[in-house]
Amino acid sequence: MKPSQTGRVTCPHCRHDAEVFVNDSLLSRGVVTTCVSCGHDTFYVQKDFNRSLGLVIVGLGVAASLFFFSRWQPILAMASLASTALVDFVVYFLVRDVTVCYSCHALYRGFGRNPEHEGFDLKKLEKYGGRTPRSIR
C-alpha cells in the first residue's frame, strides 16, 4: 500500500526537519500498515519493555539465588528464582505490544495491532533492515 499523504514535520526537541508518510489506514482505522518515517510496509511486534531493565531484574534474581545457595539455603535460592519468574510473568501480561519497522526501527505505540504483523524474524531483518536507525540529536 502506498502512502496517500506526505508532509514534513519538525521535531520539537532537536528542530530536525523530516519527511513523513501517512496513509488512510493509520488515519481512519488506527492500524499501522506503512512506516511514517521511511515508507516501508514490513513490521514486527514486540513487548514495549526496556530490555536493560529486564536484564537487571533477571540479574538480581540470579544474584540473590547464588547468594542463598552459597549460604546453604536452597529453599530461599529457589524462591528467589521463582519470584523472578513470577515478576517476568506479570510484566509479560501487563506490558502492551509495540509495532517496530524492520527498515528504520521506528516504534509505534498506541495503535491497534495489525494481524499481518508477527514477532521478530531475523530473515526479514536481513532482507529489509539494511538502514541504520535515525540518529537523535
Explain what the structure shows:
The radius of gyration is 20 Å and the shape is elongated. It has two domains: 5-48 and 99-128, no CATH class; 54-94. The chain has four helices and five strands, in the order ββαβααββα. The mean pLDDT is 79. α2 runs antiparallel to α3. With 137 residues, the protein is of the alpha+beta class. It has a three-stranded antiparallel beta sheet, with no helix packed on it. Strands 1-2 form a two-stranded antiparallel ribbon.
Secondary structure layout plus pairing:
Blueprint: E1 5-10, E2 17-22, H1 24-29, E3 43-47, H2 51-70, H3 74-94, E4 97-101, E5 107-108, H4 122-128
Helix pairs in contact: 2-3
Largest sheet: 3 strands, antiparallel
Mean pLDDT: 79
* Helix fraction bin: 25-40%
Strand content: 15-25%
The radius of gyration computed from the alpha-carbon positions, rounded to a whole number of angstroms, is 20 Å
The helix-and-strand class reads alpha+beta
Compact summary:
With 137 residues, the chain is of the alpha+beta class. 39% of the residues lie in helices and 18% in strands.
List keywords for this structure.
137 residues; 2 domains; 3-stranded antiparallel beta sheet; elongated
